[in-house]
């Protein structure tokens, strides 16, 4: 017997994030390291923990191994409860065969049994791809107050970004009357953040209907939301004011990371009232040697800095040897920059080594940011 | 190593630590920028495959129980075995500087009786090392000795450690105040459970004795062997020990051994972002822990989690415990700063290093 959970979360973490290139060659985008000691999925999982959601299904598909090990029992986010907790939900087989998740909606459809196990009234659907802090309880309040079938978290974006996003139009009560996925000529600049709260009954009915539609791409944005809108269901927006970023491309990943270094950053990693939780490895503090220097940087535990660091993020367990320089760069965990090497405007993958006296990256803003993948060796 | 259970004596008390241990015990002293002293013996046991560990708590047990909890950080929250918190003698005869009170073990014989493991590894909580206990245990089992005791060469004249006389690999006597280069106990030994139970029985009437005092007269009757540990090991008894040994962790070789990524030292998890350096930060030869925010200068110092160093502030040759704030322009030199202290803007605190401890 499983206890009823009124509000549960389903976290979509199966995306490859192919626009991150070398960084997602071996791991899924939600598993990519961010902010020195976090992984992108930590932000959504921490939001769940900080919103008192204790039942989270994590849907994985693309190269799930690291993600599965990383999430483990969920104890890093205090989600290792007897009742609920984190469940990893990869595609599975039944007596009629198994198949990959065909789309975001299909992934949830295939796990309706998991959802029904907890008999929830509301289900929040999240993506493991975004950097933000959000109290989902406030969004649930909006949903309940509007007696909505579906509530979509939205934020205003610059008009030039609108054609790349799901764009909504809502009246003054927040009721949605129009939705367009990636419109060429957007009618509004209110963008969906890919965060949905469904009343469970509506979710179940719409997913079952969608699964029978041979023409559907089984996607929330392309299929489920337009269908519900056409059916005249109660769809509302929940306006979000804070910082939210999809770090899905190398330039945005680099830019968002560099902004963390500001004295007054848009997104403050050091905020204590809504902490970002992550797997802690009990590493020793970082060490700066007698000839080392660090200026405007984030440095995580376990790193050893004997050379020069300027305006960079040095993740856990990195070593920067004497005479080496790291400028305007992001070193992901366990990178070694050997003696005399120079790393400028670059992202260096986990476990990579920049060999002695090598030069990687260019200070020229017209040259793309240099990226090298996990475990690479830069000569 | 399911044939061995561990016993950590964390109730050692000494006046030598002064105010450092006024509200906590040696075991719960913050150490190495991110740890507590107890993390070292506890992690060493777990990393040596010992999964049943009794922790004899001191009189001031709050801080240590708060830290170890159910043993989750060391994977000791288990169905089989795990961490057992054992009460130490609270109102017993307090023998200053005693190492292992027999009374403490006697009070907790249930812990020893319950386990089927034939061997017990006993260690004091105040030993900082990265010792792998497995070779010690193997040697003990192979030799068939009654007790195998760990010792090393004193790295300086020791007023508090117990000297040991070793002849042909056997312990033949103890003596106080070992000099530099002499052999000294590391307060770590393996003993068979049956023998330990017998010793407790024999000395039941005089259980205020220290274990070493008790067996001293029987060294010629028992097979007590010596095991020399060659790795880095320090045993702390005074605030001077604490300061000097802490500063040794700024040596890269010492740090590489103590904080090895294989057999890592585990500690209670706490959340903090990486340390942030803003314009004006100048850090040299120092350890800086997560959650710290640096705008000033830090030289030859250890900063624990969440320490803020303001613009133009200077921290030299100091240990700054977690959540301290050194405001703009303040100067802190040669001191140990207790948790959550605020050094106000422009003020200057200069100590003598080994003993100057600031708490509210």
Largest sheet of chain A: 9 strands, mixed
Mean pLDDT of chain A: 93
Beta-strand portion of chain B reads 25-35%
Oligomer: heterodimer
Briefly note the structural class of the backbone of chain A: alpha/beta
Tell me about the biggest sheet of chain B?
Answer: 7 strands, mixed
- Count of helical regions of chain B: 9
Query: Averaging pLDDT over every residue of chain B, what do you get?
Result: 90
Radius of gyration of chain B equals: 21 Å
Helix content of chain B: 10-25%
Helix content of chain A: 10-25%
- SS elements, strand count of chain A: 29
Low-confidence stretches of chain A: none
User: Distance between termini of chain A?
Assistant: 58 Å
Q: What is the end-to-end distance of chain B?
A: 45 Å
Largest interface: A-B, 41 and 43 residues
Number of separate strands of chain B: 28
Put simply, the count of helices of chain A is: 8
For this entry, give a set of tags:
heterodimer, A: 379 residues, nine-stranded mixed sheet, B: 360 residues, alpha/beta, five-stranded parallel sheet
Task: Describe the 3D structure.
Chain A is an alpha/beta fold and 379 residues long. Helices cover 19% and strands 30% of the residues of chain A. Chain A is built from eight helices and 29 strands. In chain A, the strands form six sheets. In chain A, strands 1, 4, 5, 8, 10, 11, 12, 13 and 14 form a nine-stranded mixed beta sheet that branches. In chain A, strands 17, 19, 21, 22, 24, 25, 27 and 28 form an eight-stranded parallel beta sheet that branches. The mean pLDDT of chain A is 93. The radius of gyration of chain B is 21 Å and the shape is elongated. Chain B has helices at 39-47, 62-68, 102-107, 109-114, 134-143, 193-202, 211-216, 239-248, 252-258; strands at residues 4-9, 30-31, 35-36, 52-57, 82-87, 119-124, 127-129, 147-153, 162-167, 170-176, 183-192, 224-228, 233-235, 275-277, 282-284, 286-288, 293-294, 297-299, 302-303, 308-309, 314-316, 319-320, 325-326, 331-333, 336-337, 342-343, 348-350, 357-358. Helix content of chain B is 20%, strand content 29%. Mean pLDDT of chain B is 90; it is low at 91-95. Chain B has 360 residues and is of the alpha/beta class. Classes of the chains: A alpha/beta (379), B alpha/beta (360). Strand 17 (293-299) of chain A pairs antiparallel with strand 14 (275-277) of chain B, so a sheet runs across the interface.
